[in-house]
Amino acid sequence: MNVIVVGSGIAGLTAALHAHESGHAVTLVTKGALGDGSTGFAQGGVAGVYGVGDSAQQHAQDTLDAGAGLSDPAAVSMLVADGSARIAELIARGVAFDRSPDGRLLLGREAAHSHARIVHAGGDATGAAISRALTAAVRETGITVVDGAFLVDLVVVGGVACGIRMLVDGTHSELRAAGIILATGGAGHLYAHTTNPVGTTGDGITAAVRAGAAVADLEFVQFHPTILDAPPAFLISEAVRGEGATLIDADGHRFMFDVHPDGELAPRDVVSRAIARQAAAQGSPVRLDATMLGAATLASRFPTIDRVTRERGFDWAHDPIPVTPAAHYLMGGIVTDLDGRTSIPGLFAVGEVARTGVHGANRLASNSLLEGAVFGARAAAALSMPASAPLPAPTSREDDPLPGRATTSPFSRPALQQLMWDHVGLLRTDDGLTHALDVIRSWRANGPAPRDVADHEDANLLLLAEETVSAALRRTESVGAHFREPALIGV
């Protein structure tokens, strides 16, 4: 069949390769250049290689524990069951994961993992190595690639997805196919501070929302704890803490053990909130101390971080560096079954755009690249297969947002991002969420029709912001990455 894959990170590239190798005619559509997106920026690695005393079952348990009880056990089991095969496939496609002198894969450990089970490449350049290998493989196959193509909307006829509308060089066009796989990534640019590259504006999720696809868990936004506190945003991999680096306050005190028994290797939501609170209390950034690792180890194990921190004027081998949290990963998205099928026949979703159920309320470190590879392959295999279980029902939505209380503040993308950071970020309150929803609905109600890519991105961010805030208001309890501050009684 004819298949369209939208997105060229690990999930989209894997899906495109597997679909092509299964005999489908594949067109890969990507917003930027082939291989652009978040995958190439991933510093950590891929979880799923088990050493002595470790197992897939233990990896599954760690994933479930990190997900705060909201992960789907069947999806988690599928992830760890397929993980070894997908890592072996990456190696076969040319990803040179780091090895010891005797040839064994080097395994790292990150927060909330009970064992070292994460493979990495180039020290801290795993995503770049994967992206290079998979884009080279796609080019070798002769898969049709349309780059510079912005996804405007899905084409749905008779309740079945059968194509996409896109904007290329200012011109609108349409592609038709029997199978559509969305792999468009997340929406980090909802927030004023993010690790995500430019262009992660929720285009796939919002196209699916407009088409009526079921979405879920949009309130679960993961904030990475350690971003270098010196713009522009640059991620300091969790693997640095896995190797022994510590978080210290203004007095040099290692404060994370005051918050959680796992210290710096507590779940990401716990570490991020602790850093934000400590920084606010002391009026200055928290610092990451990696000096005990030594200059040689830092340069060899984390060459990219070592280079960039030095370019920014920091000598992290001798002095702790300032860090702060930033929006990093969306655990929610388009609801899928275990093969990537959505509630709209003919439409699949894989990678960060999808809500597979793996991550629950909080993603376990280094499960994202694994999820993209596992479910990208599964979706491609399922293109010609009927669903084995009922799919979620499509969602009916009004075309226009509900009116919010009028606001005199003009819309701009930075204004939206700051609103989301202030009220829908690490620490949330009922009043803050309600205020944010009012402002967002007012902006949506008064916004002009999109004309160019930037306009479409703004419209997508506004729609996704409304969906995210609404989901956060519905979930009144605190769980995982969604943390509600208690109301102040009598104040």
TrEMBL record:
InterPro entries: FAD-dep_OxRdtase_2_FAD-bd (IPR003953), FAD/NAD-bd_sf (IPR036188), Fum_R/Succ_DH_flav-like_C_sf (IPR037099), Fum_Rdtase/Succ_DH_flav-like_C (IPR015939), NadB (IPR005288), Succ_DH/fumarate_Rdtase_cat_sf (IPR027477). One of its GO terms (molecular function) is L-aspartate oxidase activity. Transmembrane segments: none annotated. It catalyses: L-aspartate + O2 = iminosuccinate + H2O2. Keywords: FAD, Flavoprotein, Oxidoreductase, Pyridine nucleotide biosynthesis. Residues 386-410 are annotated as: Disordered. Coiled coil: none annotated. Its cofactor is FAD. It is an enzyme of class 1 (oxidoreductase). Belongs to the FAD-dependent oxidoreductase 2 family. NadB subfamily. Catalyzes the oxidation of L-aspartate to iminoaspartate, the first step in the de novo biosynthesis of NAD(+). This is L-aspartate oxidase. It comes from Microbacterium croceum. The gene is nadB.
